[in-house]
Each structure stands twice: as C-alpha cells, then as structure tokens.
Design brief:
The complex is a heterodimer of chains A (120) and B (139). Chain A is mainly alpha-helical. Chain A contains six helices and two strands, in the order ααβαβααα. Chain A is elongated. The radius of gyration of chain B is 18 Å and the shape is globular. The chains are: A mainly alpha (120), B mainly alpha (139). Chains A and B meet through helix 1, helix 2, strand 1, helix 3 and strand 2 of A and helix 1, strand 1, helix 2, strand 2 and helix 3 of B.
Chain lengths: 120, 139
C-alpha cells in the first residue's frame, strides 16, 4: 500500500501484471463511458469494451509519445499539459480533442486568438 | 480541488461522478510510463488531460459505431463495429492489431459476442433504455 509502483495496477483493477494481463483498463468502466456517449447506444457486446481496452492503450501511447516530442523540443523532462495541447494541435487525427485541451474560456489564450485570426 | 475547475462538467445530473466517466488515472499513468523513457516525468495535469482525452476517444468512436448500428438496424454494438469506427475516424494504424486482438479473443471465448449482457441494469440517466428492453423490467 505504501508502494504505488508495484501494486497500482492491481488496486485499480487493471490486471495482474501489465504485460501478461490481457487488459490494462477496467472493462466495466469502459462500458460505462460507452453508454454515456450517446442515447443511441443501447446494447454493447462483451467484446466491444475489450477492443476499446486495447485501442485506448494504443491511443494513450500515441498521444503520450507525441506529447513527449513536444517536451523534448522544449528541452524539458517533464511532460506538461501544454505539450499534450501541442500534440493535439499538430495531429489531424486528434482534431476531436481540440476543444478539450484548449478550452477557450481561460484567459491565457493570446496564442489562440492569433491562431483564430489566421484561420479566418 | 479548486485549482482544476475544469473538473466540473455542466450537464452532469449529480448522479454521475466525475470518476465514472474517466478511466482510472493510475492505469492511464501506467500506460504512459510504458512508452516514455525512464527519466521522463509527467505532471499531474498532463496525466489528467490524457485521462480526459481517452474518455473522449471512447465517446467519439462509440458515437460513430452506434450510428452504424442504427443505420443497419442492429441494437448491439459489437467488436467489429468498434474496429470499423476506429479505422473510419482515421486511426488506421490501430485497426490491424485490434482486429487480430479481437479474432484471438473470439477464438478463445467462442460465441459470446451475441449475448446481451446486463447492459441496462446500470440504470443510466437516459430513460430511453426502458423502451428498448424486450423484457419489461419492473422498476
């Protein structure tokens, strides 16, 4: 319980070991998220959350890798939220995340304003 | 808790915890660490952001998959629909390993894909689930 490293996966229900366990992510939670995504979602087969567990792993890995590239470019060793935002901005397939990482409500959006102007 | 005000999403009906619509952050962090060099550090905010992005990914793909089911008049979103949606939305690289993953699962598990599991008992906020239940549940 003191050591977060060795047991965090088990505590979170992620599986016995990250490598040999089939899923790193809890299927029930995935299913909940799926159900909430749309009123059209009625029934979900058992395999669907399973496919997502793998897909999310791939997604998180890709997003992390790209974010880390931004960190490196900034000559830092700590991955910050801004790095994630940059990765999202520079990857087409992550367009659906733009609003999530760049909420326009916040004040520090000088860059964003310029960006918007250029787009127009 | 006050510094991350973006944790409060408007539109939650109070019953839905923030945590219920996100994947556990420990798991997310673990996957991130797998891909980063050993000396890499991750800020808490970055982890939370990626945690949110993962949920958004699930919603995004599920929306596409369920629309396909709707068009084809099927009620159950299955693994193939998810694979298809992922490919359609531009994540081409993911599709082949996912298909293989799914095929392997099917070999092992046999024909469980058609079983309507206890999907409706979660008692989600949407009341529409009641209409589509073939067996009327006494609530």
């Amino acid at each position: 319980m003191r050591q977060a490293g060795a047991y965090s996966g088990i505590l979170s229900g992620g599986g016995i070991s990250g490598r040999t366990g089939p899923h790193l992510l809890p299927l029930a939670r995935i299913k909940k998220i799926m159900k909430k995504s749309s009123v059209d979602v009625k029934m979900i087969s058992g395999e669907a959350p399973l496919v997502f567990s793998k897909a999310c792993e791939l997604f998180i890995e890709e997003l992390t890798k790209r974010s880390w590239n931004m960190t490196i470019q900034g000559k830092r060793r700590t991955l910050h939220k801004e790095d994630v935002a940059s990765a999202v901005a520079t990857t087409d397939v992550f367009d659906f995340l733009i609003d999530l990482v760049h909420p326009n409500a916040s004040g520090d959006v000088e860059l964003d304003e310029e960006h918007v102007e250029q787009k127009q | 808790m006050d510094d991350s005000t973006n944790k409060f999403t408007a539109g939650d009906d109070g019953t839905a915890n923030q945590q219920e619509r996100l994947l556990p952050i420990a798991n997310v962090g673990r996957i991130m660490k797998q891909i980063l060099p050993k000396n890499a550090k991750i800020s808490k905010e970055a982890k939370e952001t990626i945690q949110e992005c993962a949920s958004e990914f699930i919603s995004f793909v599920t929306g596409e998959a369920s629309e396909k089911c709707k068009k084809e008049r099927r009620k159950t979103v299955n693994g193939d629909d998810v694979c298809w949606a992922i490919g359609t939305l531009g994540f081409d690289d993911y599709a082949p390993p996912l298909k293989r993953y799914l095929d392997r699962y099917r070999e092992v598990e046999g024909d469980r894909s058609a079983t309507p599991q206890r999907n409706e008992e979660d008692g989600g906020p949407s009341s529409s689930t009641a209409e589509f239940n073939p067996t009327p549940k006494p609530f």
